[in-house]
C-alpha cells in the first residue's frame, strides 16, 4: 500500500527547510528512525555531500537520521534495504539522468509500490509521476528517457505559479506550457502550489496543505481548481 | 559568411508580431522576396499551417512571401533551395525533435554556414547555439539529442528575465538555472532580454537592440552585463 507525501516545495516563504511538513513527516516516518536520502537533484549544482548535510539538519529536528544514498557502495542495495526514502528537489534532468545511470528507477519504484514511506519535494515529487515532461527545470543534462516512476497516474507540476496579469513579458506562462504538454500527451497534470502536497495512503490520494487549491489540467478540458482534501483518484 | 539575426522574442510589448525588427529584416532578406518558414516549434501547440498563417502576416508587412517548410514533400530539398530562412519560436523540444525526425539538422546548419540569411526568434534562436540545454521550455516531447546547430560557440537563453527581488516564490530564478547549467557544461550563455538580438554578419557577432544590455554567463566567472553594440566574438 503506497505511503507517500509528494510536496510542491521543500521550503515555504518565512519558514525553515521542511518546517511546514514536520508534523506530516513524523507521521509518515513513524516506524523508522533512519531515512535514506537521494541527493541526486543537486540544487544549484551543490555536491551530494553538501546537499545531504542540509537535508540532515532538517530531519534532525524530527529526530530522524538521514543517510545519503551516495555513501553506499551499492545504491541498489541501499534502496532495497531502506525503511524510508526522501528524494530532495533540485534539477529534475540531473536527478533522472543519475537514477538511470545507476539503474535505480526500477528498485525505487518497487520499494515505493511495496509501501516504503516516501517523501518527495519538488524534483523528488516530479519523478513520482508518469514522466518528467512537466518539470520547470532547465535541461542542463540529457537523460536517457523522460519516463519516471509512475507511482501516480498523473504528472505533477511543482512550484505551480499563476500567470501575472501585470506582466509584459512574452515568455510562456505555466498554464500555457501545460496546455502545450496536452497537445502531445494525455497524462493529467496537477499544478501544485508551494505549500501543497499530495498524500497517498490507504489507497487514497488526497490534496493536502495550507488552504491552497491545486489547478488540475486534463487533455481537452478547461483547467479547474480543486480545494484541499479533494481526492485525486479520479485522475487517470 | 554567416548572416543571421537571433532574436530573444518575435514580439515585444505594445508592438505587433516582428514589428520591432522590420527594418532589420528588410536588410537581412534584401536579396530575396521569398523566405522559407520553419513552423515546427508550434507555440501553444497550434498546427504548422496556423503558425505559418501568423508568420506570413508579419512578413507581408515587409513585402516578403513566406512559405512553410511543411508544405513541401521534400523538406531537405526545400531547405537546400531556400534563399532565406526563418525559424519561429514556440517549444524548443518540439522543434528539435521534429528537426531530428526529418533529418533537417545538418542541411539547416550547412545552409546557414554558407551564408543564407537566417532569422531565429526565441526557440528559433536557441537552436543556433551549441545545445538546447538553456531553453526555458517545458520538455513535453523527448528529442533524440539536445545538440543543436552550433552556429554560435555559445548558447542563448531567450526571454531572459532578471530575478524579482520582491518574489517569495521558491522556484529557481533564471540566473540560478544558468549557474546550474555551468556545473555540468562549459558553453558560455547569453541571457538575451526581450527586444535584444544578436547580429552575425561579415564575421562579426554583435549584440543589438533597443538599449538593453545582455547578461553573459561563463563557467567559473561572475555574470556580467554587456551593452548593445558589444562584440560577442570573445565568447568561446
TrEMBL record, chains A, B:
Task: Give GO terms for biological process.
Answer: proteolysis
Is Zinc-finger a UniProt keyword of this protein?
no
Query: Is the keyword Magnesium assigned to this protein?
Result: no
Where are the coiled-coil regions? Answer: none
Q: Which terms does the record give in the GO molecular function aspect?
A: serine-type peptidase activity
Q: Which domain of life is it from?
A: Bacteria
**Annotated keywords:** Hydrolase, Protease, Serine protease
InterPro entries registered for this protein in UniProt: Class_I_gatase-like (IPR029062), Peptidase_S51 (IPR005320)
List the PANTHER family. ALPHA-ASPARTYL DIPEPTIDASE, PROTEASE S51 ALPHA-ASPARTYL DIPEPTIDASE
The family classification in the record reads:
Belongs to the peptidase S51 family.
Protein name, per record: Dipeptidase E
Report the source organism.
Maribacter vaceletii
Amino acid at each position: 500500500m503506497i505511503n507517500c507525501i509528494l510536496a510542491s516545495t521543500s521550503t515555504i516563504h518565512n519558514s525553515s527547510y521542511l518546517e511546514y511538513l514536520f508534523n506530516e513527516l513524523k507521521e509518515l516516518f513513524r516506524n523508522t528512525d533512519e531515512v535514506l536520502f537521494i541527493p541526486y537533484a543537486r540544487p544549484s549544482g551543490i555536491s551530494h555531500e553538501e546537499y545531504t548535510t542540509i537535508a540532515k539538519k532538517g530531519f534532525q529536528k524530527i529526530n530522524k537520521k538521514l543517510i545519503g544514498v551516495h555513501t553506499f557502495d551499492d545504491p541498489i542495495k541501499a534502496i532495497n534495504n531502506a525503511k524510508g526514502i526522501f528524494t530532495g528537489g533540485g534539477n529534475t534532468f540531473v536527478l533522472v539522468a543519475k537514477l538511470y545511470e545507476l539503474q535505480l528507477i526500477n528498485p525505487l519504484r518497487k520499494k515505493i509500490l511495496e509501501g516504503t514511506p516516501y517523501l518527495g519535494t519538488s524534483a523528488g515529487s516530479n519523478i513520482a509521476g508518469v514522466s518528467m515532461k512537466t518539470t520547470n527545470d532547465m535541461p542542463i543534462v540529457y537523460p536517457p528517457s523522460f519516463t519516471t516512476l509512475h507511482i501516480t497516474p498523473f504528472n505533477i507540476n511543482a512550484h505551480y505559479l499563476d500567470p501575472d496579469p501585470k506582466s509584459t513579458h512574452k515568455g510562456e506562462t505555466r498554464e500555457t506550457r501545460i496546455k502545450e504538454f496536452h497537445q502531445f500527451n494525455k497524462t493529467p497534470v496537477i499544478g501544485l502550489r508551494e505549500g501543497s502536497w499530495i498524500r497517498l495512503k490507504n489507497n487514497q490520494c488526497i490534496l493536502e496543505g495550507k488552504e491552497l487549491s491545486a489547478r488540475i489540467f486534463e487533455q481537452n478540458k478547461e483547467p479547474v481548481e480543486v480545494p484541499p482534501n479533494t481526492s485525486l483518484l479520479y485522475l487517470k
